[in-house]
Amino acid sequence: MKTDDLIKALDADARSKAMPLRSAWWLAAGAAALVAAAVFMMTIGPRPDFMVAAHTVRFLSKFVFTIVLAISAFALIRALSTPGAATGRAMAAMIAAPLLVAVAVVLELFMVPQALWSTRMIGSNMMICMGFIPLIGIGPLAIFLWMLRYGAPTRPVLAGAVAGLLAGGLAATFYAAHCFDDSPLFVATWYTIAIAALALLGALGGRFFVRW
């Protein structure tokens, strides 16, 4: 069978599922958000001064970064789960979140004295960040990997990594409501490492669980 014929057959199979793939992905996203919310609320919960912090730019910027990452990863993983779907535009959109973080870091370096750079980057909760973003995100990652099996990705390792980024963006959005370290220097360092860990787990899951 030619490659094009195989892709068309996989696409037809994905479309013939009991629930349309597009609807299934939205249902999976809702379920993942509920799982992440439950883990977050049963463990650390929002910071006590959440309403006060919500009036500061640094605090709100964390949610901009994480939500943009989650939205762009969601668009890409939906495309990757459908054989033959165009992924170029969704792939290019993945640069949005890192670019926003990079701009925020540059602005922070200009606004904060150099003597405080390392203090802002290390913060006071880096170990909590490194532990709880993966903890909150592991359930959503499992849901997204299962959804990839529901579809028919032709690049399972890449799709799995994007599932990890999506789970990481979702988990980091919840964790940001607890985190007392609002500096972009902290976010760019520790959020990135924690989300990258989920992306690595997702890639491994794609390699061994999603492949066909």
The helix/strand series, from N terminus to C terminus, equals: HHHHHHHHHH
DSSP helix count?
Answer: 10
Oligomeric assembly? single chain
Structural class: mainly alpha
The major pleated sheet works out as: none
Low-pLDDT residue intervals, each spanning 5 or more residues:
none
Our count of domains comes out at 1
The N- and C-terminal alpha carbons lie at a distance of 16 Å
Q: Give the % helix.
A: over 70%
Using only CA atoms, what is the Rg? 18 Å
Keywords: Membrane, Transmembrane, Transmembrane helix
Protein name: DUF1109 family protein
Pfam families: NrsF
Organism: Mesorhizobium australicum (strain HAMBI 3006 / LMG 24608 / WSM2073)
Helices and strands, with pairings:
Layout: H1 3-15, H2 21-43, H3 50-53, H4 57-80, H5 88-93, H6 96-111, H7 117-122, H8 126-150, H9 156-176, H10 184-210
Helix pairs in contact: 2-8, 2-9, 4-6, 4-9, 6-10, 8-9, 8-10, 9-10
